[in-house]
Design brief:
The chain is built from 4 helices and 32 strands. By secondary structure, the protein is mostly beta strands. One of its GO terms (biological process) is cell division.
């Protein structure tokens, strides 16, 4: 007879079992590891990678992809896949106008690729799923950093393996700054904090369990590789870079006090006008930069960063801020609503040289395309326009310099399945959703767009940088693995 716990778990796998029924059921009934009390381990900050050498216009780095045993859960050694032995990988801090060259050595037994998500890079350095590094070999990826400041992230993109590889640890933050930043009174140093968030399932021995599309059976939330940690903060203003590095988990962030965030950036960089937000949606691969103000918070206060979209109560509170005695600090240029409400938001930066204008996308629209995303139950595949990924097929040939509108349809309303769509190479504008304009804070600059079941979303992009073949795909990575991905090719203008 099923006990209450097993009955709940059985109900949670019904939708996922449409695609991988046997594995989902095995996952649902597998033993879980010893519970880790929420907010019992400190937050870890990934190390910042140092260049091995530098020239007048470039910084060079060496990284190694390998299996590593690390302590993820307290007192347990877990097998992970890592960049340079770090889970998540080390943070790279780059600067606009200075190239970064990363030599990636593949220490795995199979092929590996590395994609810098959100980056405007040549096709040879994009980390295309079909352009792998052979085992025991290395490759140099060159990132020109000729784009606006942004919170980017890098991850494995090996075809048919990207979902499991990222799940087991192959991802890290890449933070690109710009001289324009120096004109803005934003928090820096220890007050500029990347937070990579994701979900996971561990077995009774503390080892990661990967089952494709098993989104309802990944009960542990990791922040920078630690389960529901606490973060000791000073009475200062913090810049938090929220990166959803999970395969399937959707976050709707909120502070337990009800205090607002000041959102200053989206996927591809700064918003023209910061937005006061009570809640912020960040789906897989999306990013948001926010300011959180602890300056007037009494010492000893505990505030939880919550996911109000969590499907289970144990995943609701994901990070606890513990406010210490550090003295309050402020620059008069930044004032955001206080914890008790009110205040003002003068951090409007349209006057700053080089700041993206609201009409930043260029060019006359030359073509409109339509892409329909759905689960094909007969094939057991996630498909785009009824086709799975074929590396020999180009789904869109685009002349260099063209501006296009893509209409993206989530045709899984009946099954209630969400998707996101990510375009490599470009940042785009979300024009509208189901015929209604997208809010400014969710419209530009974006490289990943979320799609609720039944959504019809239009995006506009200009392809005026590099030539070559690039993927576009659902960034619910388990969907991309099976096989929701296509390719566009930018060709010389006739």
């Amino acid at each position: 007879m099923l006990n209450r716990r097993d009955a709940i778990k059985l109900g949670s796998v019904v939708g996922a079992a449409l695609v991988f029924p046997t594995k989902q059921l095995a996952s649902a009934f597998s033993d879980d590891p010893p519970g880790v009390p929420p907010f019992s381990v400190p937050l870890s900050i990934p190390p910042v990678l140092k260049p091995t050498r530098s020239t007048a216009d470039a910084d060079f780095y060496d990284m190694r992809i390998a299996e590593t045993e690390l302590e993820v859960l307290p007192g347990i050694r877990t097998k992970t896949l890592t960049f340079n032995g770090s889970f998540p990988g080390p943070t790279l801090r780059a600067r606009r106008g200075r190239a970064v060259v990363v030599r990636q050595f593949n220490g795995l037994s199979g092929p590996a690729t590395v994609h810098l998500h959100g980056a405007d890079v040549p096709a040879s350095s994009d980390g295309h799923p079909m352009d792998p590094i052979a085992p025991g070999q290395s490759r140099e990826y060159r990132y020109p950093n000729d784009q606006r400041a942004a919170t980017l992230w890098y991850h494995d993109h090996t075809h048919h393996f990207e979902g499991e590889r990222v799940y087991r640890g192959l991802s890290g933050a890449y933070l690109l700054s710009d001289p324009v930043d120096e004109l803005l009174p934003l928090p820096t140093g220890e007050f500029d904090v990347p937070l990579m968030l994701r979900d996971a399932k561990f077995d009774s021995k503390g080892q990661l369990v990967f089952v494709p599309d098993d989104f309802l059976n990944r009960p542990t939330v990791l922040v920078n590789g630690r389960p529901q940690p606490y973060f000791e903060v000073k009475r200062k203003l913090y810049r938090l870079r929220l990166i959803n590095g999970s395969n399937l988990e959707m976050f709707k962030f909120r502070l337990s006090t009800g205090a607002p965030f000041l959102q200053i950036a989206s996927d591809g960089g700064f918003l023209r006008v910061p937005a006061v937000r009570q809640e912020i949606d960040v789906w897989p691969a999306e990013r948001a930069e926010v300011l959180v103000d602890f300056r007037s918070v009494p010492p000893g206060t505990a505030i939880a960063l919550q996911n109000v979209a969590a499907l289970s109560e144990n995943k609701r509170d994901i990070l606890q801020f513990r406010v210490g005695d550090g003295g309050s600090w402020a620059k008069p240029e930044i004032a955001i609503p206080s914890w008790s409400g009110g205040g003002r938001v003068p951090l409007v930066r349209g006057q700053v040289p080089g700041w993206p204008a609201n009409n930043a996308l260029r060019g006359r629209v030359t073509r409109t395309r339509r892409f329909v995303l759905r689960l094909d139950l007969a094939k057991g595949q996630f498909v785009i326009n009824d086709q799975g990924f074929d590396p020999d097929r180009v789904d869109a040939t685009i002349e260099h310099g063209s501006t296009e509108i893509w209409e993206i349809v989530n045709d899984d309303a009946a099954l209630g399945i969400q998707h996101t769509l990510h375009l490599h190479l470009v940042q785009f504008r979300v024009l509208d959703r189901n015929g209604k304009p997208e809010p400014a804070h969710d419209s530009y600059p974006k490289d990943t767009v979320r799609l609720f079941p039944g959504d019809v979303v239009r995006i506009q992009a200009t392809f005026d940088s590099h030539l070559g073949r690039y993927p576009f795909h659902c960034h619910f990575l388990d969907h991309a693995t099976h096989s929701m991905m296509g390719q566009f090719e930018v060709v010389p203008k006739r």
